[in-house]
Design goal:
Elements (H helix, E strand, L loop, with lengths): L2 E8 L3 E8 L1 H18 L12 H7 L1 H23 L9 E5 L8 E8 L4 E3 L6 E8 L2 H14 L2 E4 L9 E9 L5 E11 L6 H6 L7 E12 L2 E20 L5 H7 L5 H34 L1 E3 L3 H19 L3 H6 L1 H31 L6 H15 L3 H10 L2 H20 L2 E9 L8
Helix pairs in contact: 1-3, 4-7, 6-7, 7-13, 8-10, 10-13
């Protein structure tokens, strides 16, 4: 297809494409479309494919014109975008278009978003803090206590229930008019909060005792908060308390393949040190990237921001089992979710785009062997066959996404290796960083 083009870089990471398609190319596209309509046309009194051309042109004029325009747009833009220096991230949108007139050139203007330009003033030999997370013996003790809590038993006690106990109950809700509502049997309730109105009214009850409880519930109607009272009858079967296992060699053998409590402490200490080392490097890299991002200018299109927000929402929905279809129905809440995620989305994009630009400048690449090694790691962790997993990743185009992520990760390691981490900041592992 013959055409003239002018591609202009526009603000906000966009390009405009002005195209004039030669009239001979337009006529060629028109003829192809007409022949296709002649082949497919079905009209009463004519055999398929035998409808005279003048009838086809008359009956399907608007459709032929529309399809010719689509063909010209599609073919010309495809060739232009294939050769452009810019990385396109959205489908072109037609902003201006002339009329399709026989024996005349056809002109139009399109616009699309491109990967934003990233200008980094400096990224090598950056002076930054090296965070060091120190593992204290208190962290080892806390982990052992967590394990004791995890493997604790609940034992019945012959006394009144108190905060921190577990209580086994039957309960029946009473609906209006004295009718029986929701009923639950043998429910174990943890009395964990003094301000929990339900737990608070169970405190002081013992085995085989009963109590009628009133609970005030809140709801919103037409923008106003309203309340209603639910009556609940409770029958107590048991009061239980948590019994922690004795801290000895038997405990170590019961929960692990180690033979003694001292070996368990050593294993926990080494595991915590590995976690602390990873956290130290992650925190140091994050601080280094913050310094680079401050010195970097971006031209991020709204399309990219919205895409990142969509990704974050999808991850959040998966993690917290949120029904996204239901959430979208509440326009106000859905809009609030997106607005709340926007700062994080921008920060994530700045982080990634800076690393992608550095990888480009430093000619950082990922070999096929590195791809295979990463897939082998996936396959081992997921207990899947390497060849099958690689085939599936190749078919769904996720291999190149993996290559991109590894390239970005390698760029981050490059920065870390070339940074001046000349100031150590020690933090107690497991403590709140702001209180360190």
């Amino acid at each position: 297809m013959q055409f003239e083009k002018e591609v202009k870089k526009e603000p906000n990471a966009k390009i405009s494409i002005q195209v004039t398609v030669d009239k001979e190319s337009v006529e060629e596209a028109h003829e192809t479309v007409v022949k296709d309509f002649e082949r497919r046309a079905k009209l009463p009194g004519f055999r398929p494919g035998r409808v005279p051309r003048h009838i086809v042109l008359s009956r399907f004029n608007d459709s032929i014109k529309s399809e010719t325009i689509n063909t010209v747009l599609s073919q010309s833009l495809s060739e232009i975008l294939k050769d452009t220096e810019y990385r396109i991230i959205t489908e072109p949108a037609i902003t201006e278009m002339g009329d399709l007139v026989p024996d005349e050139n056809f002109s139009f203007t399109a616009e699309c978003d491109i990967m934003p330009e990233v200008k980094i003033s400096e990224y090598k030999d950056i002076s930054s803090e090296k965070y060091v997370y120190d593992v204290k013996e208190t962290a080892v003790k806390q982990e052992i206590e967590r394990l004791r809590e995890q493997f604790a038993n609940l034992v019945s006690v012959n006394r009144k229930a108190a905060i921190g106990d577990y209580i086994v109950i039957d309960y029946v809700e009473e609906e209006g008019g004295g009718k029986q509502g929701k009923k639950k049997e043998n429910q174990t309730v943890f009395l964990d909060k003094k301000d929990d109105p339900f737990a608070k009214q169970l405190v002081g009850l013992g085995k085989d005792e009963s109590k009628d409880i009133e609970l005030v519930q809140e709801y919103e109607e037409e923008g106003k908060k309203k309340t209603y009272t639910v009556k609940v009858h409770v029958d107590v079967h048991e009061v239980k308390q948590k019994e922690l296992p004795k801290l000895d060699d038997d405990f170590a053998r019961d929960i692990s393949d180690l033979d003694s409590l001292e070996e368990l402490r050593k294993a926990i200490r080494e595991d915590l040190k590995e976690q602390a080392a990873r956290r130290s490097e992650e925190r140091s890299k994050d601080e280094l990237m913050r310094k680079i991002i401050v010195k970097t200018t971006y031209d991020i299109p709204e399309t990219l921001v919205n895409h990142e927000i969509d990704r974050m929402l999808s991850d959040m929905a998966h993690a917290y089992r949120i029904d996204m279809e239901q959430l979208r129905k509440d326009e106000k809440q859905y809009r609030e979710y997106r607005e709340n995620l926007r700062p994080r989305a921008l920060e994530s994009l700045k982080y990634e785009l800076a690393l992608a630009e550095i990888a480009k400048r430093e000619n950082i690449s990922i070999s096929d062997k590195e791809i295979d090694d990463e897939i082998k790691g996936f396959a081992k962790r997921q207990k899947k066959n390497f060849a099958d997993l690689k085939k599936r990743m190749t078919e769904n185009d996720s291999i190149e996404n993996l290559r991109y992520r590894l390239r970005v990760s390698k760029a981050l390691n490059f920065l870390y290796d070339h940074a001046k981490l000349d100031r150590e900041k020690h933090i107690k592992f497991g403590a709140e960083e702001e209180n360190a």
